[in-house]
Amino acid sequence: xxxxxxxxxxxxxxxxxxxxxxxxxGAPAAGFSVFGAVHLGYIxxxxxxxxxxxxxxTDAIGMHHDALSRxxxxxxxxxxxxxxxxxxxxxxxxxxxxxxxxxxxxxxxxEARVRAHGVPAVRGSDEEAALRGVERLLRFPGPxxxxxxxxxxxxTSSEPLRMLAxxxxxxxxxxxxxxxxxARPTLLRGYFDTVFDARLTDYIDETISGVKLKIRFLxxxxxxxxxxxxxxxxxxxxxVRTRVQHLNIQAATLDDLARSYQRVHELGFEMALxxxxxxxxxxxxxxxxxxxxxxxxxxxxxxxxxxxxxxPSTHQGISIxxxxxxxxxxxDQLAQLRHAARSLARREQxxxxxxxxxxxxx
Length: 362
Hints:
Oligomer: single chain
Number of strands: 21
CATH class of the largest domain: Alpha Beta
CATH architecture of the largest domain: Roll
């Protein structure tokens, strides 16, 4: 081990010890960052369309399916017992995101931060943890009413995967990303900075049907982004009905991406955007529409961030090529306008105690 490695290890050990001591006292440790210890681990979705979700997830996208009961099912991507939990209910939306925290010191630091800001954090029950395939579960309020959940230990399964895809990329990068539209984007960025030490990767400026959008991409580990926050520039409106605009998972091979795209078409599920390549993370992907209405992106081969060299920048447009809207009608555009107008009368949940005054765009 080099002197540099020894010093880095000592600093990490000291920071972890400081965090543990502070957490034991009920306070967050100053100067202790959880960046790199946070990974998107699972998503909880509520829907009354479980049969459609089973076909979509298993037969179209190509994930492993486990039926738990008439009202509960899970999808797997790898050896972890749960990556997506679908429970019966009326929301037709994402209701929680689960974050795998690599070590107990980082878990306790996040818990201490949340509690220190006066935000309630609740221990998940044994039943809730078992459904999610995790241990040591903590739940607390998140932006747009999406409960944020953290855990330290995923439960793995030795049961062989039964799925059409050859594999999915998870590991140290987490399993993909969540994209949100917001009328209060700077507050959402403040929230994820406070809780997870999220870093800005880059921006995209885009114009769609004459509407100017700005998208902020946040990372919590080496993945280009685990959270994307889009907003209409100059107007405090949210044009999307669902809390989440889209979810992303990363295919292991280009063939997996192409074959799932073909299956989505053949099985009659709606396509939102055709195959294309993004400007910022260079990911090749397409967007399908889920049975609950939000979009599902299957991607392949995005860039991995090198913290020593990466500098944030602004890209013009979301795509180098492709990602053309598929089947969008005037009625769809009018529906988005109605949702945007209604959002003016609603107070968006931002969890101000954690988002603070927000982080303005650079």
